[in-house]
Amino acid sequence: MIEKGTEAAVRWLIACGAVKEEEKEVYCYAAYSFLLSIAPLLLAAAFGLCLGCVKQSVLIVVPFMALRKFSGGYHTKHLWTCLMFSSILLRLCILFSLVAVCDGRLLAVTLLAGISLVIWSPLDHENRKLEPEEKVCYKKITAVLTAVFLMTGLLFYFMKIPACAISVFTGIILSAGMQMPVVFKKLFIKIH
Predict the structure, then answer these.
(1) Can you say whether the dihedral through the CA atoms of 96, 56, 75, 131 is positive or negative?
(2) Closest to 74 measured CA to CA, from 171, 143, 177, 172
(3) Would you say residue 150 has pLDDT above 90?
(4) Residue 113 and residue 174: Cα distance in Å, rounded?
(5) Which of 91, 105, 179, 181 counts the highest number of beta carbons within 10 A?
(6) What is the pTM of this model?
(7) What residues make up the domain containing 107?
(8) What average pLDDT does this structure show over 90-104?
(9) Beta strands of the chain (E only): which ranges?
């Protein structure tokens, strides 16, 4: 569906004279990549709109998207499985953020999630193995982003804006949680 939509859009651009026919494949790939990269943000905004919490939904997905890009984690084998799994997980996180209490337990879990992200990142994906230099760079970026989002969440916490703090913390926890299947698999393989 996404592929057909991007292809239709690029054909329209060709018909309008904005894109040359020989550049079609590059533009299709770029449009497809762009749509996939903003899909979590669009999903979060849509769910947030339905639940009346767009701001909190966006504050969950922004840390998740940024951290996930550099930290890695679990990936499904098919796009539709990914979209379905992501949709369910995102909805659950949004619902969690609406009922969670911003207390010491949430702060502790978030801190542990942040430490986990820094320790385990980046995790390779079977479709794209990282070079050693990339691993070093991605680890540093993940550490900096984790610190920035932790500070942002704490800032909301100390400014007495718990809904925003909970949302940012939930995005950090979600990022670390998405690493756990891969981490457990690595540990299991190492033991056996």
Answers:
(1) negative
(2) 177
(3) yes
(4) 8
(5) 179
(6) 0.85
(7) 2-191
(8) 93
(9) none
For residue 167, the number of C-alpha atoms closer than 13 Å in the C-beta half-sphere is 20
At residue 175, the pLDDT reads 93
- The two tokens of residue 80 are 């539709």
Amino acid making up residue 86: S
Position of tokens 């018909």?
15
Residue with tokens 């569906």: 1
**Of residues 13, 73, 2, the one with CA closest to residue 37:** 2
**Is 82's pLDDT higher than 80?**
no
% the chain with pLDDT above 70: 96
User: Does position 1 have pLDDT exceeding 70, yes or no?
Assistant: no
Domain count, the chain: 1
Q: How far apart are CA 34 and CA 37, in angstroms?
A: 5
* Residue written as token pair 């905004």: 45
Residue 120: is its pLDDT beyond 80? yes
Q: Is the confidence at residue 88, as pLDDT, over 80? A: yes
φ and ψ of 128, to 5 deg:
-150, 105
- Ramachandran assignment for 110, one of left (phi > 0), alpha (psi -120 to 50 degrees), beta (any other): alpha
